[in-house]
Design goal:
It is a single chain. Helix content is about 30%, strand content about 35%. It is of the alpha+beta class. It has 2 domains: about 5-60; about 70-180, no CATH class. Strand 8 (about 140-155) and strand 9 form a beta hairpin. Helix 2 packs antiparallel against helix 3. The protein starts with a helix and ends with a helix. About 20% of the residues are buried. Mean pLDDT is about 70; it is low at about 5-10 and about 20-70.
Length: about 180
């Protein structure tokens, strides 16, 4: 008979091994999405989802595909971009420090991706689904013309490029995902 203490030790070992396995998979295969590997390895439900989120955050901080910095300046130096509370995006004028964009997204985690040029490379995560969008400044707004949508599949993740005009201030994850 397994006692409650032994069961807790086994559960904690399971989390540790799942995270270790995911990091090893990332190192060996060059996988950039360790969150998916951890989520697929850990089969959790109910109250343990809080533990899963904590584990994912610690792995995410080690993930080289995601830049976890409080803020950065855009390539043109005109704006400073930051993420707070994992789901709020703030863009400020670099000269005045005044916010030009400040929005929180409900039930969405936002992450930066490595910058390439004068774009705002964001990943929006909702459960096991996520989308990558590269916004560029255009006429006082941040806009994108395509979205890469990733969904879990039996043989890994399935990505689909969707041509759609997206304005950051009007961004709605559900409406873009439903059209897929």
């Amino acid at each position: 008979m397994v006692t409650e203490t032994q069961n807790l030790k086994l559960t904690n070992s399971k989390y540790f091994l799942a995270i270790l396995l995911s990091v090893l998979i990332m190192a060996c295969t060059g996988t950039k999405r360790t969150e998916k590997a951890v989520a697929d390895t850990l089969e959790l439900s109910g109250d343990s989802q809080l533990k899963q989120r904590s584990d994912l955050r610690s792995v995410r901080q080690q993930d080289t595909s995601t830049v976890n910095i409080p803020s950065f300046k855009t390539a043109d130096g005109l704006s400073t971009v930051g993420i707070t509370n994992d789901s709020c995006l703030i863009i400020t004028d670099a000269k005045t420090g005044k916010p030009t964009f400040d929005k929180c997204f409900e039930n969405i985690i936002i992450q930066f991706r490595p910058m390439k040029g004068n774009v705002l490379p964001l990943t929006f995560i909702s459960g096991k689904h996520y989308m990558d969008i590269d916004f560029r400044p255009e006429g006082g707004e941040w806009v994108a013309s395509e979205v890469m949508i990733f969904n879990p599949a039996k043989d890994g993740e399935k990505g689909a490029l969707k041509k759609v005009h997206v304005v950051l201030s009007d961004f709605d994850y559900s409406s873009i995902a439903e059209g897929e």
